[in-house]
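Protein fold
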Amino acid sequence: MGSVAVIRERLEGLLGVDDPEERFTDLYDRHYRNVLGYTLLRAERDVAEDVASETFIVAWRRLSDVPEAALPWLLGVARNLLAKQRDSRHRRQALVDRIVALSSQRDMETWDVAEHVIDREQALAALSALREKDVEAMVFATWYGLTPEEAAMAMGCSVRTYNVRLHRARKRLDQALRVETTFARAVPQGRPARRIA
């Protein structure tokens, strides 16, 4: 550290000046490479970079909690974030394993890619027909696996309001899927579908 920086640091300490942006920038400059190195040892590159970035987002939000010896604190945050990533991957793998376990050999033999493409297209069309808040409520619950409390916090509403939104969103999706399925069955094969909105 240069002599000017040492003098400046001492003056700021004496005067009680602590600019959060400068403190964070210094924290980032000093420790990002170490945090990234730590995460790279424990995860694939894209996950490691995301976790390292998220570590500094946490540091920015909790800047007043970051101790003077910041690196151990940052590594602890990174470690916790990596654990959450692993838990999330394990949950996804467990879901895949359950689906495979529930699929019979007959299911595998009769699996038709075309049917699944049509089902996917119908599902996407049904989802696109929903309001943004409906999709958001379902995504928080199903894709991110958030609890109602966490999803409500993310949406900025009460848990009760979130639960009502999720219930209504699921009902709307069910109705939209029925419409899409009915429409898909009504369209003759070989002719392009035209829908009047």
